[in-house]
């Protein structure tokens, strides 16, 4: 499934469509209960999979490290702004394709809880997000 994520990412980049990628990145001394330590900041687990690391150099890709399950909450900055909401606004997003690896927690949670439940107040240009496409990749 990584290959399909790479293929879709390349299509998006060729078309200059915006990409937003969450990277799970945790401090070793701050547990994320009930899960065991994972994706510790500075380790390979906290990076994109090798086949997608080229996205780090793509101008249309925004990468956001998050230290919690909830991608929306993980996008809140110290000044109260939200990197994801700002990305949605600046790119005038009205459709979202979500892909991910090991998706049964973070990715599904982001789609179901954050996008679906909160879309009524998301600033999707002048209207709400009208389509959310979810494609799950399991390794």
UniProtKB/TrEMBL annotation:
GO terms for molecular function: nicotinamidase activity. One of its GO terms (biological process) is pyridine nucleotide salvage. Residues 1-108 form the Isochorismatase-like domain. InterPro entries: Isochorismatase-like_dom (IPR000868), Isochorismatase-like_sf (IPR036380), NIC1 (IPR044717). It holds the Pfam family Isochorismatase. It comes from the Eukaryota. Belongs to the isochorismatase family. This is Nicotinamidase 1. It comes from Quillaja saponaria. The lineage of its organism: Eukaryota, Viridiplantae, Streptophyta, Embryophyta, Tracheophyta.
